[in-house]
Every structure is written in structure tokens, then in C-alpha cells.
Write a structure and sequence with these properties.
four-stranded mixed β-sheet, globular, two-stranded antiparallel sheet, 4% strand, 29 helices, mainly alpha, 6 strands
Length: 564
């Protein structure tokens, strides 16, 4: 979406299917961004993420200009064709579209060619560019500085990008992406409350497509220990998944939530899938992070071969200094756990990784690395442990919340037992899993712990699953889709009986009426196996249910692969 200066020529609007698609996109743009005037129809296509339409329209262009080629290069990148993106953007630059260097640099960056991306940006006189391109250039510069230098060095550029974007007529289109970059920078500097404030401001802007700012909000809420708020947001984000890329983004959040809830086996499975998907997408950073999480979880769960294979992949893929520091430190922790490294060697390596992260001002990772150093020191006796714990306390006093360490505490039960209950500043409150579980794969039960909650309504579980999948619905639709084989009076009676039974047996949940729709409230207290399982086998969804919606759900759940 960077740049966007294409002006539509008559060659692109011949009558037919492409014209209809273009009209539909333009109408959607006016609905979502009524106050924004962009320079062309194809800007609107990219603003709404319809890169495929840009590609198809450009296929009929007889003599594309430099700006045409620039937009086509962006579209190729969004569609995952990195080689075509680079070649097309190089042609655009050769024909005089200087600002296409921003887009070429971003393509380099996404394939971990960070130094090449930085050199490409250095060839630009950013101050001479149109303001919209200036905002995109400073945003990318901030992201590159965070990889090549430090997050502290990235902060001025991230702020400048937001300041420029905020003054643009196209503010609603450009500002969200700049503000997300600034929020991520604050998050990595340990200023989670400032990051969350920025992300909450995005709720005032019209954001089309998958709400990636809410993904960042959910991640920050998890780091702040606001698990109930994070659960609710993650459940909402699941309903917004319509592409493979969005599903992968959501799965990474779900993996973190599972880990924090203590469901480490499920977290391992989701991270294994996330690692493979990220590597297939050439997303080295996400692949390295996922492989490291697989290694840590597998080592803890007694699967050494899985742990070492994942660690080896992370070592191969780690390109930037930040990634190499993470691999160095977490690799030492994994090898210590497996008995392949002495505590002394592990502690020395963890110190080196921690100091590298400190130089880059990656505060959350620095604190977490120090916690793993405490585990290595535990093997060396009380004096060594006391020194490492004091260092960790100092880091937490400077900027930190105990919830930020919660994920690693699940891997370090012996260290936690040694400190509890005398060190709440480090341990924080215990993380509680959802009170209720809805099981709809191979069975149909609402569970509280190991006990079935007997709702006394034959289709009670189906109603809950229906509202979790579709969101708020009218009574007419509920009666049609769930109670369709009953007459209207019997169906309505069963539905209202379910509302009463929930109040008695599962008061965390309620079916509340508002705005003509029934809402399932209290979803943060409910874990559903369909959304909580990395690869749910939908062939066994509600096996005794004959409703059409349930039988069609397998087709409605996106599979991993393809798309942006």
C-alpha cells in the first residue's frame, strides 16, 4: 500500500467482469473511507487490499507508465510474488518513479535483505517526496532501524512518520500503518501502556479488512497480564479471519494465549504449524520466533529431537542481529534443559545474548533472557542465583510488569517453586484458564473442569457454537438454522429455556438481547475446541447434529495457505 500514484487509463476499464469488480471496489472504498479522496481507482484497490484486481487490470495495459509499474510491483508483493515485485519495481525506477525505491526497499526487507533495503532508501531524498511517500519512507526507515540498529534509534523516524501521516488528506488510509509501527516500537521498548493507547486510538479511524491493529492490541494486553480482555479480543479476531494470512496471524495470538493458560502441548502444536507457514511465506522473523518457541516447549515437554530440529532451523534462518541474539540465548536455555550444556556455559551465553538485546533496547526480550539466566544460575547455587535475581529485579523496576515473564515461568517450575510466594514482583498473579470448555469435535458437551454441565436443552451446545461462529444473530435466524425442524413455538421455548439454564449452571455466560440481536456474553470465560485447536478436524464437528449450518462449517473455516 506504500506510495500509490497510479492513474487509471481507458485501456483498463473495458466492459466485462473486471469493470464490475472495479465498480464494487470503488463503492466499498466510498463506504469505508467517505472523507478520503485518492488519486486513482487503483489506489482504492490497494487501500482495500485487492491486489489481485490491480494485477488483472494491469494485464490489459498497453503502455504502462512508471507509476503504473510501481503500483503493479506493490500488488505483486502483496500477492506473495517477490521476484515479480522486484523486477517490476526496478522497471518503475528506471522509468523515473523515484519513490518506487520505498516499495523496492520494503520488498527487500520482507525477504530479510535488510541492508539492501537500507541502501535503497539511502538513495532517496525523502524531503523532496510527496508527503504521503515521506510518511511511508520514514515508517520503513523506523522498521529497518529497529532491525539494523535499535528500537531507540527507530523511535524518531516512527514518530515523524505518524506526524506527517496525521496531516494528510488521506490520513485515514495512511495513519493506521504508521501508528502500528510506532506502537510496536513502544512495545519493544517496554512502554506497553503507551503502545496500547496508540492502538486504541486506531479504533477512531475506519480500518478496512483484517484489523491488524487489534492483533497488536491483543499482544500488548497479553504482555500486561490482562488475559480476560485479550481472550475476548482474540475471540473477536477469529470471527474476522477471511484469508490464510489473517488466519496465521490469529494462530500466533492463539498460541500465546494457550501458552499463558498453561496448555503447553496445544501451544507446541500451533507453533509448529506457525513456523512451517512462516518459512513457506519467506517470513524469517516469524519463522525464527516460532521455531524457538517450539524448541523451548518441546524441551520442557520431553521431546528432545523435536526441540533440536526446531533450534537448528532457527539457527539457519536467523539473519538479523536481533534474531541471532534470540537464537543464541534461547538455544543455550534449550541445551541446558536437555543436558547438552553446562550451567556455567549456559549462563555465560545467556549473559551475552542479554547484553546484545540490551544494546538494541529490546527490553521485553532482555528481561526474558535474564529470567532464563536465573534458571541457569539456580544450578550453580544460592549465591549465583541471588545475583541473577537482583539483576532481574532491577530490570523489572526500570520498566516491566510481572505478566511479561508469565510465558517463561511455565517452563521454569523449579525456579518458580523456589521463589513462591515471596517474590510477587517477579512471579505476578497465577494465570487462570477459562472456566468453561465447549467441546464440539466428536462430541457435544459444555464442561466445567472435568464435569459436564448438563444444560437440559437438547440443542444447547449447538446454540452456543452457532453464536460463537456467526456472532450476534436475530431470533428468526437462530430458530431457522438451529431449531428448523421444530415449530416456531417449541423452538422459541427451547431457546429461552437455554437462557435460564445458563444463568443457573454457567452464569459466566449469558444470551443477551440488544439491537434486535442475541449476543453470547462472557466469551472470555469459554474455550472452544474449534478455535482453540491448531488443526481442528471439522469432519467430526457436532456429529449428531443434522443442521445445515453445522454440516457446512468445514467449508466456512479457512485453511492455511495462499493469499495476503
Amino acid at each position: 500500500m506504500d506510495g500509490l500514484r497510479f492513474r487509471l487509463s481507458e485501456d483498463h476499464v473495458k466492459e466485462g467482469a473486471l469493470t464490475d469488480r472495479l465498480k464494487a471496489v470503488r463503492a466499498a472504498f466510498k463506504r469505508h473511507f467517505p472523507e478520503v479522496q485518492l488519486l486513482s481507482a487503483l489506489e482504492e484497490c490497494l487501500a482495500l487490499g485487492d491486489a489481485a484486481l490491480v494485477r488483472d487490470l494491469m494485464a490489459s495495459a498497453s503502455a504502462p507508465t512508471a507509476e503504473d509499474l510501481r503500483v503493479l510491483g506493490i500488488a505483486h508483493r502483496l500477492l506473495g510474488d517477490v521476484i515479480a515485485s522486484e523486477q517490476t519495481l526496478e522497471r518503475a525506477i528506471a522509468q523515473g518513479a523515484a519513490a518506487a525505491r520505498i516499495d523496492l526497499a520494503r520488498t527487500y526487507s520482507l525477504t530479510e535483505r535488510k541492508e539492501d533495503a537500507w541502501q535503497e532508501l539511502q538513495l532517496l531524498d525523502i524531503a523532496a517526496l510527496p508527503a504521503q511517500d515521506q510518511a511511508y519512507a520514514y515508517r520503513l526507515r523506523a522498521e529497518l532501524r529497529s532491525d539494523l540498529d535499535s528500537f531507540e534509534a527507530a523511535l524518531p523516524d516512527a514518530r515523524l512518520a505518524c506526524r506527517i501521516a496525521n496531516g494528510l488528506p488521506q490520513r485515514a488510509v495512511v495513519l493506521p500503518w504508521c501508528q502500528i509501527t510506532l506502537a510496536v516500537t513502544y512495545e519493544q521498548l517496554g512502554e506497553d501502556h503507551r503502545a496500547l493507547h496508540l492502538l486504541e486510538q486506531l479504533g477512531e479511524l475506519p480500518v478496512y479488512g483484517y484489523p491488524y491493529h487489534l492483533v497488536n492490541s491483543a499482544r500488548v494486553l497479553l504482555q500486561l497480564g490482562r488475559l480476560e480482555d485479550a481472550r475476548a479480543l482474540i475471540l473477536y479476531l477469529r470471527t474476522q479471519v477471511h484469508t490464510a494470512q489473517a488466519r496465521r496471524t490469529w494462530q500466533r495470538l492463539q498460541a500465546d494465549l494457550l501458552w499463558l493458560q498453561g496448555d503447553l502441548s496445544a501451544a507446541l502444536a500451533v507453533n509448529q504449524q506457525a513456523a512451517q507457514d512462516a518459512e513457506r511465506d519467506f517470513n524469517a522473523l516469524q519463522a525464527v520466533k516460532a521455531y524457538l518457541r517450539v524448541a523451548l516447549l518441546a524441551a520442557h515437554l520431553g521431546a528432545p529431537d523435536t526441540a533440536l530440529r526446531a533450534l537448528a532451523r532457527a539457527e539457519v534462518l536467523a539473519g538479523s542481529r536481533g534474531m541471532r541474539s534470540l537464537v543464541l540465548g534461547y538455544g543455550a536455555s534449550v541445551r541446558l534443559r536437555l543436558g547438552h550444556l553446562t550451567p556455567e556455559a549456559a549462563l555465560q551465553t545467556l549473559h551475552a545474548a542479554r547484553d546484545q538485546l540490551a544494546q538494541r533496547a529490546e527490553r521485553p526480550d532482555e528481561r526474558d533472557m535474564q529470567l532464563h539466566a536465573c534458571e541457569a544460575a539456580r544450578h550453580l547455587g544460592p549465591e549465583a542465583l541471588a545475583r541473577e535475581l537482583e539483576h532481574l529485579r532491577a530490570l523489572m523496576r526500570a520498566a516491566g510488569h510481572p505478566a511479561m515473564l508469565a510465558r517463561s515461568w511455565h517452563l521454569l517450575p523449579d525456579l518458580a517453586a523456589q521463589l513462591r510466594p515471596g517474590d510477587p514482583a517477579l512471579l505476578g498473579p497465577a494465570v487462570q484458564p477459562p472456566a468453561l470448555r465447549l467441546l464440539t469435535l466428536n462430541r457435544a458437551d459444555l464442561m466445567r473442569g472435568d464435569r459436564v454441565v448438563r444444560l437440559g436443552v437438547r440443542r444447547g451446545v449447538e446454540v452456543l457454537a452457532y453464536l460463537l461462529h456467526f456472532g450476534p444473530r436475530s431470533l428468526e435466524l437462530i430458530l431457522r438454522d438451529v431449531f428448523g425442524d421444530l415449530d416456531r413455538t417449541k423452538g422459541r421455548n427451547q431457546f429461552h429455556q437455554l437462557r435460564l439454564r445458563l444463568r443457573e449452571l454457567a452464569p459466566e455466560l449469558s444470551l443477551e438481547y440488544g439491537g434486535g440481536l442475541y449476543h453470547l456474553r462472557g466469551q472470555e470465560a469459554l474455550w472452544w475446541d474449534v478455535t482453540g485447536t491448531a488443526q481442528p478436524n471439522m469432519a467430526h464437528f457436532l456429529p449428531a447434529c443434522g443442521s445445515d449450518w453445522a454440516q457446512e462449517l468445514a467449508l466456512a473455516v479457512p485453511e492455511a495457505g495462499g493469499g495476503h
